[in-house]
Amino acid sequence: MKRISPVALLAAALLLPCLPVPPSLAGRAAIPNRTRMPYLGAIVVNAETGETVFEENADAECYPASIVKLMDLLILQEKIDRKELGLNDPVRVTAEACRIGGSQVYLAENESFPVEELLYALMVKSANDAAVALALQAAGSTEGFVQMMQQKADALGMKSTRFHTVHGLPPDKGQEPDVSTPRDLVLLARELLKHPAILKYTSTQSRGFRDGKFGMANHNKLIGTFNGCDGLKTGYFRLGGYSLVATAERGGNRFIAVVAGSKERKVRDAKAKELLSRAFAKVTPKPAPTATPAPALTPAAPVAPAPAAGKSPGRGKKLLLLAVAVALGWGVYRFVKTQIQGPKPPQEMFGQK
Fold first, then answer.
1. Other C-beta atoms lying within 10 Å of the C-beta of residue 74
2. Active-site residue 24, yes or no?
3. Marked catalytic residue, from 103, 126, 203, 243
4. Among 47, 117, 268, 307, which is most buried by a count of CB atoms within 10 Å?
5. Catalytic residue among 66, 103, 203, 243
6. Catalytic annotation present for 66
7. Spatial separation of the C-alpha atoms in residues 296 and 15, rounded to whole Å
8. Which domains does the chain have, with CATH numbers?
9. Is 243 labeled as catalytic in the residue annotation?
10. What is the helix, strand, coil percentage profile of the chain, to 5?
């Protein structure tokens, strides 16, 4: 075995501080660790009524990480609903969007994609570069979009939530982290589910990007493995742990589960499944909607023909009786006259003179 000389070790020690530090490790702000086993906090609610069916430490402050993209999606979908943004509108990628690290679809400056394609990248791949590109398209600046995010959070009553980014990455030095709570994230999820169109993005397990040249796989592993799950979003960075906002629908009932700040991904997923399963076990499936049967057709009663105009129903009978009466009267008249005058002579009878 070759021994390393002391000179080489000294040279390495002198050069090490000069080596470039990866961007993901450089200049990060010092923030407290907010993780715990099996989780920092959790809550389960009925999506329709808002009733809480389970909670544990639901007001614990957590780092949502990429879950902040649910607020991105809500704001963008509301703009689409108001016709302020179109699914086919082209989004031109800027240099700012290209510089974002973390999970991405590697957008290149001056590339152009439809809004809808970037929404799939945002939800399926959790692409940070797509988040920035869409924010710039919608608000002109990421700062302006973050302001919209915070205003919406305040309007929804998310009292413990503070947004500082459009992507949820750990903060750089001098910046503050995005913070929320499981209870606040449930409010966001319930509002988002008022727009069923978003489920086509959140329920997609995999999808191609850039004409299928780049594959995207959903980080939410409950999709396809937990019956009825169709969303919503995962989030992770080291000091915030593994978090998940999950929703599922079974038998006409829908629940939302938030598990925040778990130290392990598999534990987070297992707890989310467990909590949702317990919620569904407590409710009765709603009857499936059935089409209202058309009323049975009953045979129509026969309709008598309408009497001719100017005639009443008994007129014919009356005319017949009148004719009989006239005939009898004429006969009586002729009989009486014959008895008084006697029979006519034959010639008179035949018109002779």
1. 22
2. no
3. 126
4. 268
5. 66
6. yes
7. 91
8. 41-281 (3.40.710.10)
9. no
10. 40, 15, 45
